[in-house]
Amino acid sequence: MPKHSDASAPPTDPYNPAATQLLDDTHWELTSWTEANGQPRAVPSRAAGSQPITLDLSTESGRRRASGLSGCNRYTGPYALKDGKLSFGPLAGTRMACPSSVGGALEQPYLDALAHVAKSGVQMNPPQSLQLTLDNGGVLTFAQRAE
Fold it and tell me: What is the pLDDT of residues 39-92, one digit of tens each?
């Protein structure tokens, strides 16, 4: 049997259905959005002085609830984990007027993307990340953040 250190171990498969069961009670921040054609989409970040888009997955109420900041407004709604796939909805949000910032411009596309997740992957080994592949081939990547 071959021996290797953890550092030389092959990366785990982020689309392993068992890995998504680790998503309950985690907190994420959108770090990149790649369109189906491979083009990156600008996302708000703390480094740029903006409020990042966030996704919190909680079981505190005894039910699975997603919530976060969608660019300008807060959103909430149920989420489900079935056969290794993360799904959302229906989601409700606040209705504040949003400035024409990157976050405000992404709000509706982001909420629409959450309704069209084709597959989800999670990497719990550092650096921890969550990938949501959309029906149209786009990919949202989140980094885990402290609450």
Answer: 999 888 877 778 899 999 999 989 999 999 998 899 999 999 888 789 998 999
CB of 140 within 8 A of CB of 117? no
Domain boundaries, the chain: 16-144
Residues 6+ apart with CB under 8 A from 30: 43, 52, 53, 54, 55, 110, 140, 141, 142
Query: Scanning the structure block, which residue is given the tokens 């976050």?
Result: 103
> Domain 16-144 carries which CATH code?
2.40.128.270
